[in-house]
Amino acid sequence: MELADYFDTVPERHNYRLGVSNAFGAGISGYYPKAKFPDWEKADIAIIGISEYRGSHMDNCSEAANRARESLYNLSKPSDKLKIVDLGNLRSGKTHNDSIAAIRYTASVLLGRNTVPLLLGGASDLALGLFRAYEQNKRVINLTSVDSRPGMAGDHFPDSPPVQSWLSNIIASKSKYLFNYSNIGYQSYFTGPSETRLLEDLMFDNIRLGMVRDDLRETEPVLRDTDLLVISMSSVRQSDAPAALFPSPSGFHGEEVCQMAWYAGKSERLSAVAITNWLGKYDIRDHTARLAAQVAWYFIEGFGKRDGEYPFTSSRECTKFIVNLSETGSEIVFYKSTKTDRWWMEVPSSKLPKSLMVACSYEDYQRACRQEVPERWWQNFRKVNH
């Protein structure tokens, strides 16, 4: 089958509030009625609408994707340098597993051409299809979700819908292609202690909402080291995302999730993103869809400002800092880019042919100077020497 066979067209717009010269929608090639399937093979980003919600025990619906697309098209162009295509709405399969397989296939094809899939809509269990696309391409990755809870309910609630257990499925597969998983913004009253312990035992990162909100900049190194990102609108407080699949009065502000999307876009390593978990039919005045569109816009704007620093090596233009830890007699080597002022640290490995270069923050360097081993360094050291 051709890639076009997996997609349905989307309504074409002609009138933009910002005018044709400034509107996002006027600057991209889309799969509209009576139009040819977009030439995606040299595209930087491919927008894909998702209608699959059966993983949340809800009916399938393209409203969420189409409404977010409508809002996104009416925003300004974030960059004139990027080639962006809208492939339309991915057709839902006969079964939920068929839809996951379709996501795997389409994402695998796009990744093989270095085109970034940007998925709008659907439930977050579609991350399973995206992860399998990396498996098919034999790429070891770091997976990150921005969510109020990790998708691990299946370990204790076998009847829970896939949207609440998608991570359990990935972990249970013992895939050699998952190096690290990070969850940003979990809320303790939605996350059981057994789930937290399991993530700790697996040497994964589970970062609490309050810790992130203390200093949002600390999410930047996590996102800089991410390959696949899943942003759940359930991570946003209900007043900002009233149609979220799992609404809660607590969560990120809309501006905060947009800032994280910008960090993700600027990461040269990140190669696929999904914005998920809201329901179009409950979205009064498209409140949630408008925020999802802005999250996508900030990701694209960050993408247009990438600096070409991945993979980062010690041979790049940087300043090297060595911090000696007096209690252990060891040292941690840090590098600061003279181009962007971003930081990395070197993690020695007995299993890899060379040391692992891990994104970090200036605060990590300061912790080492206070004779504290940064948690980010320690987690990665355990992984590559376990």
What does this molecule look like?
The chain is α/β, with parallel strands linked by helices and 386 residues long. The protein folds into two domains: 3-303, Ureohydrolase domain (Arginase, Chain A), CATH 3.40.800; 318-385, no CATH class. 30% of the residues lie in helices and 20% in strands. It has helices at 63-73, 96-112, 127-136, 166-172, 193-201, 209-214, 219-224, 254-266, 287-303, 362-369, 375-385; strands at 7-8, 29-30, 45-50, 84-90, 116-120, 141-146, 178-186, 205-208, 228-232, 272-276, 318-325, 330-337, 343-347, 356-360. Strands 1, 2, 3, 4, 5, 6, 7, 8, 9 and 10 form a ten-stranded mixed beta sheet that branches. The chain has a four-stranded antiparallel beta sheet with strand order 11-12-13-14. Helix 4 links the parallel strand 6 and strand 7 (178-186). Helix 2 crosses helix 3 (127-136) and helix 8 (254-266) packs parallel to helix 9 (287-303).
Query: Segments where pLDDT lies below 50 for 5+ residues?
Result: none
The CATH architecture name of the largest domain reads 3-Layer(aba) Sandwich
Radius of gyration: 21 Å
Kindly state the mean pLDDT as a whole number? 93
Summed up, the domain count is 2
Strands, total number? 14
- Structural class computed from helices and strand pairing: alpha/beta
Précis, in short:
The protein is 30% helix and 20% strand. It has helices at residues 63-73, 96-112, 127-136, 166-172, 193-201, 209-214, 219-224, 254-266, 287-303, 362-369, 375-385, and strands spanning 7-8, 29-30, 45-50, 84-90, 116-120, 141-146, 178-186, 205-208, 228-232, 272-276, 318-325, 330-337, 343-347, 356-360. It starts with 6 loop residues before the first strand and ends with a helix.
